[in-house]
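Whether sequence alone determines local backbone shape is best considered at the level of individual chains. We regard such an encoding as a compact summary of how the chain folds. The sequence in question and its structure tokens are set out directly beneath this paragraph.
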Amino acid sequence: MKSAQILTELNAEVFQYWIPRLVADGVDPNDIEAVRTQVKLWEEWPKAWGERGDAHRAWAEECLAAGHRITAGEALVRATLCYHFGQIIAFDDPNGKAAMQRRKTEAFREASPLLRPAAECIEVPWRNLTLPGYLRLPETAKPAPCVVLVPGLDATKEDFHTFAEMCLRRGIGIFAFDGPGQGEMRARSPLGEGFETSIVAVIDYLALRPEIDPRRIAILGRSLGGHYVLRAAAIDTRVAATVVFGGIYDYSYWDSMPPLVREGFRQALGAATEKEAYALIGGNTLDGCLKNVHCPVLVVHGKLDRIIPWKQAVRMVDEMPGRAALILDEDGVHCCHNHAIRYRPAMADWLATALRAA
């Protein structure tokens, strides 16, 4: 897909989707306004966000030199988010996309020891590879409950920061990681069948950590990640609770997906064409799977979601009677980003309650 083909979508995307998502994930509104006024063409988006990230990173260096570690860590997180959103739609420039991804990873690694609590960089064995992730544990009594955070198609472990903070304030540890086709893993392994086994591998690792209560490990999936956390819960009885927000049941709506999303799938799957991408993933479904999910489940979805139809969420809950609860936001966009101030704390509260019960 060429930039000229999607150029006309720029304003619609910014107003209907990107601004709510950027704010929800913790991007400084001043950065959003600066990029919005600066960018006239779609291909200018990565450069503009990269410059904002560089400015935050430079400020972090000044703060660190002055001994202001907390401020430096916060600035590096902001840099991370700018780099993330700079690369997210750079489909026409794979090398530039990968370079921006590296800048994002480096910035968050620099931030990790400066955060409170600090983030521990971990590589979890999976198949013949390792999964990169960050573990943060609350400064409370141990062993603590922990939630595994599973990104979506164009999300990565680093942009879970705002939700991670909510969990930590409630005494819940977090482990955010990149699975196949995501973030750092894209160069190592494409998205494909068996993604849920990467989640099980993470649970295997966390269950052996003495600071974590193995009976209180939950999983949360965002968008595409919501599909895979349910598949993981169906095969791993150790999962104490599951949250899905903006999740996928199946791909019956493939042809009505926004072109940017189909292009995202094509690249994550390593497919040559959209037709090949659909051949690789179109048959994936939760049909017949959900009867094997026995832990409590919370499903959150927006009725104005243009990426994943809200009826997919209803179908999930209908197939898990007595185990699943549904929060359906009448005015919510994808992942309810426009009402994140309400629904993200609600998900963290639900997890806190469920893990106390567990």
Q: What stands out?
A: Residues 1-8 have pLDDT under 50 and may be disordered. Strands lie at 120-126, 129-136, 144-150, 173-177, 212-222, 239-245, 297-302, 324-329.
